[in-house]
Design a protein that fits this description.
By secondary structure, the chain is α+β, with helices and mostly antiparallel strands. The protein has one domain. The chain is built from 2 helices and 5 strands. Strand 1 and strand 2 form a beta hairpin.
């Protein structure tokens, strides 16, 4: 990751010969309130159960992918409510 002179960030793939996400897949994260009034960035990982196509199912069946083994169920909702309450920039 590199910081440019503007508030935007430039992200670089560590393995350019084997990208993890394809152009048809959703973004790996979302930003909430990027102009929030804080110098801190709050992060909520495991906010969804999406797995990049390049990784297949990680050897997990549909039941496992829908369970806590694959994601923190409800974490995104709790995080978004907290971000809104605190007015912080955040990524989930």
């Amino acid at each position: 990751m590199q910081f440019s002179g503007s508030p935007s960030l430039v992200f670089q793939c560590m393995l350019p010969c084997m990208p993890l996400l394809t152009a048809t897949e959703p973004a790996a994260f979302t930003m909430e309130r990027p102009q929030g009034a804080s110098e801190f960035l709050l992060v909520c990982d495991h906010a969804s159960r999406l797995v990049p196509e390049s990784l297949g199912s990680l050897g997990l069946d549909d039941t496992q992918l829908a369970s806590h083994i694959a994601w923190d169920i409800g974490a995104a909702g709790v995080a978004k409510r907290y971000y809104a309450w605190r007015g912080r920039p955040a990524s989930a």
